[in-house]
Amino acid sequence: MRYTALYRQWRPETFDEVVGQDATIRILKNQIKSNRIAHAYLFCGSRGTGKTSTAKVFAKAVNCLNPIDGNPCLKCEVCQKLSIGSSMDIIEIDAASNNGVDEIRELRDKVKYPPVVGRYKVYIIDEVHMLSTGAFNALLKTLEEPPQHIIFILATTEPHRLPATILSRCQRFNFKRIANKSIVSRLAEIAKRTGVQVEREALYTIARWAEGSMRDALSLLDQCIGFGGNVVSNEDVLAVLGTADQGFIFAVAENIIEGNVSDLFYQVEQLIEDGRDVIVFLKDLIHHLRNLLVIKVCHDGAELIDVGEDTFKAYTEQAQKASQERLMRAIEILCAAEAEMRWSTQPRVSLEMALVRICRPEQEVMLDALMDRVAKLEQQLEGGVVVKQTSPSRKGARAASKSQAVDGGSTVGKEGGDDGSNAGGGTADAHVWEEVLGIIKKERIALYGFLKDCGFVLDEKGVAVLSFPADQQFFMESINREDNRNFVEKAIERVIGRQVKVRCTLVEGKSTSTEPEEKSQNEDIIEKAIDIFGEDFVEIVDD
Ligand SMILES: [Zn+2]
């Protein structure tokens, strides 16, 4: 006996057997029942979602002598004749296999002949977007004045490539990707009726891989039956797909959560030795971490994760050990690595790099911060900034005059960073503070308002001293609130790459926020002077 592929063998014969397109099917059935049939339909949607199958069912249903609730009865004379397949009344054209000019011309000549067995002749044009411009024009002529007995069903995965003139003449239906649960239950039914035992877990793996395509799911099931015989386990499916088994992925995820870089390197080694595809593995790993994140965020999320009960339990246990931040970071980094790998000749190295980056965030922060600072220094050198060595005594004097709370060292105030004389630790602090303020301004503008006038010194013990002007006690108290202080500490940590404690102090003197006004007053005077005496006679002397 010749073997028929499962997806051909189990092609839906009635609307009720079409999976996962309930809205579309309901409308089509109603049209049959009420006999309000259009002359041109457009079925859009990704591959394997049931466009052609539905078109074929529809072609039978419009011709059936005794439709049952909109479905073809499959028993009447017409249904029987149309089922033979070589019917003259249901004509399938595959636009992908040729650009279709000749076939569409022929179609134009033949549409005038009435159907042989039923009431309608139905033309199903698959992948209609592949037609050439000439073929489209020929088709358009027919669509403009279709004979009463003709129905066109155009199917496409890419409706945006169709000319507007064609689109506007069709009744359009969108076929959605089929939900994994629907695929699983259909696969289970087919397996049962074929006499094959398939593990529940295996069905979910197939459905997940098929990404909404029933045809792909059935083709894969076919291959798995070929591989495993009449009993198909999840391992069989994974073997056919060439992906790593669930246990391995759980173990890798465990090491990502724990930050065990060296174990991860050994696991990558094992992956390569087993001859697994690195990119396929990466996709699985991202999917796994995504599931953990869903559980973490939704506190349950069983409906959002297509796995069997046991696996779901394992996911929940693992999710409890992971922090949301690490999961998000890991997914972000792995997705970037996946994109990079497509062009890389060394996918393994890309994977290893990504794993290290996930497990060692503190290094990365430091590197990022350093890169930033190097870039800034380069910019300043290009701009010709002169850096002077300042004598310790002067530094001390500056600090003392500015702040009594800070003994020794240097203070960075509003003007500290840009006067060029504040070299050494002070300059470094100024740059750090500038970056920290940049972060805070972006993420918590209110806190930025409290902090913009305060001084910043980082001492060797990892304490960041924030000195507020005496008239900003309220600001200081706000920053001293635990959540705000934590935020500032985190922001500083992000810049310098190590932990700090923030200590707030009040210092004598007023806030410097009035400074710009003073400046503008000075500028005013200078402008007036220039007005009165002329530019050549005004010399500006800084004291
Ligand atoms: Zn019938």
From TrEMBL:
Entry's Gene Ontology BP terms: DNA-templated DNA replication
Q: Which residues cross the membrane?
A: none
The molecular function GO annotations come to:
ATP binding; DNA binding; DNA-directed DNA polymerase activity; metal ion binding
Region Disordered: start-end pairs: 388-427
The EC number(s) attached to this protein equal 2.7.7.7
Domain spans labelled AAA+ ATPase: 37-179
Family that this chain belongs to:
Belongs to the DnaX/STICHEL family.
Name this protein carries in UniProt: DNA-directed DNA polymerase
Question: Which organism is this protein's natural source?
Answer: Caldicoprobacter faecalis
The upper taxonomy is: Bacteria, Bacillati, Bacillota, Clostridia, Caldicoprobacterales
